[in-house]
Design brief:
heterodimer; A: alpha+beta; Alpha-Beta Plaits; four-stranded mixed β-sheet; about 15% strand; globular; B: mainly alpha; Formate dehydrogenase/DMSO reductase fold; about 70% helix
């Protein structure tokens, strides 16, 4: 039963996780206080209670938490600190949870050059590390399909080609698929409780604390972009990325749905998505579609781009092109 | 009045707790199943839905298949209500409450199947109108919550009102229940239509994205549901001494004869349209009927289901067969089972095979899923048994608030 993609090559030139953790611990020690200690103790207590009745039994605070859109800034601060404390108590890793808002006037778009992609799957692995995706059970946001040259039929493709296979293989090309951040997202209208929505910059996000885990959005997605936490996700402490966005890569509980967010905790601060930075061929292009000078805008204007399943009128923000 | 209602509840509970040795054994049997299922569910709660055989490619399985089927069962109570109230069929009028009680029990099963399927049962309240945050009207699932909840309330009210009136020895006031009966008729159609729209609205899933789906749902529900009622009424007559008229059973038999034929016709229309045009989108149908690239888990099931449906239809339309009560009941069982496979696993699973990106992942329920599902069926049976145990003597007039003096 292929739950998701096979593993890709080792991560490239990322700073070692230990270094990052060290820096963060230093940073956090500086701003420590008595309230923090109390909260840490409270979190430890909560964690102990929780582990007694299955890992993700909710705390009272969690149980009565309101929808993301109803939270005040003070609520958010409190929740972010609680998540940080819980992570620290559980894994010993100091993290920082923030919630960068969408930038006015920015609408993100992604373009992928199929002529350049060589099927290395560095993007898959970098994405997993950046977004704290668990390895067991394995969750991956990006799937790379090995396609027959001359065919765009998924029926003839292989999504789970061997990790020891020499790529690119003769007579094949590679088509990575991740969330297309549709402008008309069927997953959003499917959700019965409004736990997933489209942000002003086009990114479709999920409130992991509001999702009931019915998986109707998974059923509705034509691009197989959504992943469900079938069991308690766990990431080895040394692999945890401490830079966490509340609506993206912060810890998720079991029983909820998650997906690619174009690394909004990076991209809303002017950085590139992790998959793009990891790509060895430069096949991936990302930027602000509203900016006439952005690379991605020029590609959409000048290249013969296409989208997957155009007939469904989902209007993806993820374009493919051959160059 | 309030005091009377407490008497009504106490008398009902009393009736439920008295019975023969066979009755207690039956309850014990059901409770044992429920206990086993609860153990399985606790396991699922602890480890997560990984205890099921569902995966990202097949995100819905046995739970939602059973849910879909049972919504139809609940809607089918209307097949008693329409003849009884619109066509003044007196034979059916006598038993209409028994059919509505079945709808109540089945709806409770539906809620349970949703509850065990969701990844965060602790957040079930997010679905409750006003309390949570219902994504209405965009989400078909939010419609489903409203229509199913409403239908449960309607049937609960109607049955309770009718039984309570009889218990007090009073003639039910038509003004106090008839409007709700008529509302419930339309409502019954809506619950199964909305459940069909959950599927047929999915552009991403060509197998379900078909206009015939809702009509198919209704036809199959109106075949399987009344079949279940026929079996239930036979049992109530034999075991509990309730005088069910032969005419009532025969009227239901006439109904299922037509609905089963219509159901088979709709199914055939769908299969023909999908397969004759060789369209790409028909791969799921080919997977279901013939298998795909060496995967054919569902093939034997669907053909057995079609055979059962055809057999049931033959029994229902042939006087020589359906006049034999035992054979009629066998035909009913065939219809119940046939539709269960055809509309449960036979409809839900092929929608996921292949996945939107062409992957073929097959699914069959895990042991946990089997135990939990069986327990919910047992719970439904238990609930219906208990409700009947109180309702039958009230309907018969042997359970009254002020018993008439013996002559």
């Amino acid at each position: 039963m292929a739950r998701s993609d096979t593993k890709a090559a080792a991560p490239g030139d990322i700073v070692s996780p230990e270094e990052r953790v060290e820096k963060l611990v230093e940073h956090r020690l500086e701003e420590s206080g008595t309230r923090r200690t109390f909260l840490k103790l409270a979190a430890l207590g909560a964690a102990a209670t929780a582990s007694a009745c299955g890992n993700s039994a909710p705390t009272t605070d969690e149980f009565f938490r309101q929808h993301y859109k109803k939270l005040t800034d003070a609520d958010k601060e409190r929740i972010f600190r609680r998540i940080e404390d819980e992570t620290l108590a559980r894994t010993g890793v100091a993290t920082h949870v923030s919630d960068p808002p969408p930038i006015d006037g920015v609408e993100f778009a992604y373009a992928l050059n199929l002529s350049a992609c060589n099927g290395s799957r560095r993007c898959v692995e970098a994405c997993a590390r950046e977004n704290n995706l668990p390895d067991d059970p394995e969750i991956r946001y990006i799937r790379v399909f090995e396609m027959e040259a001359g065919s765009l039929e998924f029926e003839d493709s292989t999504p789970n080609y061997g990790s020891d296979e020499k790529v690119p293989a003769k007579g094949k090309f590679y088509l990575p698929v991740q969330c297309h951040q549709c402008d008309n997202p069927p997953c959003v209208s499917a959700c019965p409780v409004g736990a997933t929505w489209k942000e002003p910059d086009g990114i479709v996000v999920i409130d992991y604390n509001w999702c009931i885990g019915c998986r109707f959005c998974v059923v509705a997605c034509p691009y197989f972009a959504r992943r469900f936490n079938w069991s308690e996700p766990s990431v080895a402490p040394e692999r945890i990325n401490p830079d966490q966005g509340y609506l993206s890569n912060r810890p998720r509980p079991k029983g909820v749905v998650e997906k690619c967010t174009f690394c909004l905790h990076r991209t809303r601060k002017g950085r590139m998505p992790a998959c793009l930075e990891a790509c060895p061929t430069g096949a991936r292009k990302f930027g602000n579609m509203n900016d006439p000078n952005s690379e991605v805008r020029k590609i959409i204007e000048t290249k013969r781009v296409y989208v997957l399943k155009e007939e469904l009128a989902t209007l993806p923000r993820f374009y493919y092109f051959f160059d | 009045m309030v005091l009377d209602f407490f008497r009504f509840l106490r008398a009902s509970a009393g009736a439920m707790s008295r019975g023969s040795r066979g009755y207690y054994l039956w309850l014990l049997f059901l409770v044992a199943w429920i206990a086993l299922g609860m153990l399985a569910y606790v396991h699922q709660l602890r480890v997560g839905l990984v205890a099921t055989n569902m995966v990202d490619q097949v995100p819905w399985g046995a739970y939602i298949a059973n849910f879909t089927y049972l919504v139809g069962m609940a809607a089918a109570a209307v097949m008693l209500v329409i003849p009884a109230y619109l066509y003044e069929d007196h034979a059916l009028h006598d038993v209409v409450v028994l059919g509505e009680l079945m709808a109540v029990s089945v709806l409770v099963m539906c809620l349970c199947f949703v509850m065990v399927d969701i990844g965060r049962p602790d957040r079930f309240w997010h679905l409750v109108p006003l309390l949570g945050r219902l994504n209405w009207p965009a989400s078909m699932l939010s419609w489903d919550v409203i229509v199913l909840g409403g239908y449960l309330l309607l049937n609960f009210y109607i049955t309770t009102y009718l039984l309570f009136s009889k218990f007090r020895g009073k003639q039910p006031d038509r003004k106090k229940y008839l409007p709700f009966v008529f509302l419930a008729i339309g409502w019954a159609i809506s619950i199964h239509t909305v459940t069909a729209f959950l599927y047929s609205g999915m552009g991403a899933r060509p197998h379900w994205n078909s206009a015939i789906l809702a009509p198919r749902f209704l036809a199959s529900a109106f075949a399987a549901g009344p079949s279940m009622v026929i079996i239930a009424l036979s049992l109530v007559r034999d075991r509990m001494g309730f005088p069910v008229k032969d005419k009532a059973i025969d009227r239901l038999r006439q109904i299922v004869a037509v609905t089963m034929l219509v159901n088979l016709f709709f199914f055939f229309s769908e299969v023909f349209t999908e397969l004759y045009s060789f369209k790409d989108y028909a791969v799921s149908m080919r997977y279901l009927l013939f298998g795909l690239k060496g995967h054919h888990l569902l093939v034997p099931y669907i053909w057995v289901a079609v055979a059962l449906d055809v057999f049931a239809a033959l029994v229902f339309v042939t006087p020589r067969f359906h006049r034999i009560p035992r054979l009629l009941r066998t035909g009913c069982a065939a219809a119940i089972l046939g539709v269960w496979v055809e509309k449960g696993m036979g409809l839900v699973i092929p929608g996921f095979v292949p996945s939107p990106l062409g992957e073929i992942v097959e699914y069959s329920p895990s042991f946990t899923e089997f135990c939990v599902s069986a327990a919910i069926w047992a719970l439904g049976a238990l609930l219906y048994t208990l409700l009947l145990k109180a309702a039958v003597p009230i309907e018969l007039g042997t359970l009254r608030m002020n018993p008439e003096p013996a002559e």
